[in-house]
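S., here's the first fold you wanted:
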Amino acid sequence: MAYIQLEPLNEGFLSRISDLLLCRWTCRHCCQRCYESSCCQSSEDEVEILGPFPAQTPPWLMASRSSDKDGDSVHTGSEVPLTPRTNSPDRRCSSSDTSKSTYSLTRRISSLESRRPSSPLIDIKPVEFGVLNAKKEPIQPSVLRRTYTPDDYFRKFEPQLYSLDSNSDDVDFLTDEEILSKYQLGMLHFSTQYDLLHNHLTVRVIEARDLPPPISHDGSRQDMAHSNPYVKICLLPDQKNSKQTGVKRKTQKPVFEERYTFEIPFLEAQRRTLLLTVVDFDKFSRHCVIGKVSVPLCEVDLVKGGHWWKALVPSSQNEVELGELLLSLNYLPSAGRLNVDVIRAKQLLQTDVSQGSDPFVKIQLVHGLKLVKTKKTSFLRGTIDPFYNESFSFKVPQEELENASLVFTVFGHNMKSSNDFIGRIVIGQYSSGPSESNHWRRMLNTHRTAVEQWHSLRSRAECDRVSPASLEVT
């Protein structure tokens, strides 16, 4: 009979599969150890059939059944070829034969495992790509890190944002006594109350105390012993519709006792911030801001009302605005006429301590760098919010329109001396700012249509610096 030699790999694979399947179906104690081919030697009493059918012994293992009964010799020599037997016609065994075959199967698997040659070990080295005969150097990924010095670290911070010495509004952590001792700008007494019946907010400016004396512009000495203070009131973010008290002459403890009303809905008033700015009047220069107090109205009971003493804090705006002027421009190409309407002004700089100002507007037409025509409005007594509604017409041919400039200057009328300069703007070829240029451009693009716009007044020096037409007028 010819002998067939099985491959070691197939023999080991089949032995493990048979062990795993047959042992799980026949022995309940060797489930954990069957894969290692070291099952326990159980007797017939401990054998339990777990499946619906008795386990079957493979034909190729039946040949070693008789040799296992004689002895338990372990073969360690060379691999012995196995002789497969022909299949028996009766493959089904009884329960006792199954138990014996299971025990024999376990011993046979152990013998086969000991005789099975070990699997070859394959040394797989990583594949390397490169130039032949090149010098090999180990390459490790490097992490790019920047070393920060203390100077680099602190250079990212802006100390002025965290310092209380700066003129910022962040004084929430200081009491009024600490603010007063820190800045020494004085205190302001005021009250607020909302009238639900008439839907308006009433602000009462009562008095101020301990205001600092005025300082000269160079900061070297004090020009006067006393200030001429007044208070400007507005509801932020709207700074245009502001109110202003009268000027109190030569005092550091002014008593105002003035009331002002703002027509505003109750819900809108709760979203506003009351800003009170104390200003020092100066007839010969721009007025200087002494200090300010800001109160978010959402933090107070507006209906019940109340009054407070608040310490003044420095303001980032050292000088007050000069006021605003509402103008309307219209050009008629067929007639060659440039029409100008001076409608009104508001919050003009006060030029008289006792009675406010007597403002008027001078309009001057400049062609190129030559003064052509001068006109002016009437003056209104004792007001800083004048209404003029006066119209003026200048003859300007269409071919000369692009070289024309209009200079608007607001003065305070003075009977005893020269008029007091308040502010100026230039509109046209040599405009004094972006707002003025935009108004002139809109007028050129819409002939025969009046174009209105508000303008903030500028100082004489600012206009002379940016507009040559301002240098040609007085």
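And the second, which I think is the more interesting of the pair:
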Amino acid sequence: MADSFASKTFTALADLYPNMANLKIIGIVIWKTDVKGFPDRKSVGSERFTFSFTMRDSPAHFVNAASWGSEGYVRSLSDSFRVGECVIIENPLIQRKELEREEKFSPATPGNCKLLLSENHSTVRVCSSYEVDSKLRALIYLPIKESRDYYSLGDIVANGQSLDGRIINVLAAVRSVGEPKCFTTSDRRRGQRCEVKLYDETESSFTMICWDNESILVAQSWIPRETVIFASDVRISFDKFRNSMTAMVISKTIITTNPDTPEGNILLNFIRENKETNPLDGEIDSYLKESINLNAIVDVYTVEQLKVKALKNEGKADPFCGILYAHISTLNIDGAATAAVRHRCSGCGYVMKEASSTCTTCSRDSWEPKSVLLSFHLLIDVTDHTGTLHACSLTGGVAEETLGCTIFVSHRARGGLRISVLSCQLADPTEAGRDLSGQGHTEHKLA
């Protein structure tokens, strides 16, 4: 247990062997699956429920744990902790794992054991802060695979359908995280999906799909253009609808957010240095429209309230949404400093300084010239009885939709605010008067 970050009070994962008894284990949860139900063979007509998670106590050692039991017990246990939290497990059953069967559907682990949690004998609890060494918490930033063992997005695209069905590792930055969408299958089972757009030095956009609640929950915490992920064991597939390759999170997958590796840090520096020319800079409203359900935005604010809220959130990356009843006080399409139209490369989507300029991103890898696309980019001021919001971004077809604002903290924008209009339409005076008087106003929601 020389490399374990657990204290002598606990048994190190490296020291586990089948049928050990009276154990106490500590580790950080690095991944987790959804709760699932299966027909109980011993009791016809009833179900048994299960979920699993992977915990780690050192750079070299991590183990899979599973819990089986009644729906109430399993759901309660699953809800008691999240990925990234440290837990203490007492009295687990140590079993020898069935290598070929289990690693086909579960994350591959270095040892030959697995943990089974019993409703009657085992306990799991989240650690208090004084019980956890900082080195143990830092393990959440360490990929389970060798840091250089990955495909770039360009490699995946270049290999094309030869990678269809393959399970590989991917290092990429997060371009956008879509809104989770629920669906019902033909046999009436409920499901969900969430599309994440990735990018790196080689590709401007690549789709990864999450199918389970736990991975979607993790994905919702990712900050676009500020988060790097190392996705271990994702399945690569050819999407006939998109006519492109995509990655899918599966039961074997473990995703490390912001990996503390040389390669991860290089990519992180790349996305920071290229924020100004990232394809999202002129399409942030398009991303927001895809990732936020406009019908779910019910919070009503005045300009003054928005400014106060933004000041309270300064330094935080998460945006919030709200409805603002105001009038457009400035729409300057004639000023020399206003760029009403932006030129974009049709190949990679990056903003080009002039219509005739050559895209510096594409030209490095191809001699074929790319066409130039035009896209609207307007800055407007909106004013109500409490004040004015300056330099709000109004692009594309957003002005034809219902009114909604998303506020971003940004040191480059005036007053530390970055405002994107998600939709804009004439307000009903009766509705505006009712909402502004306080009726229907709720606490703000983060988006």
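Why I say that: The mean pLDDT is 80. The chain is about 15% helix and 35% strand.

Talk tomorrow,
H.
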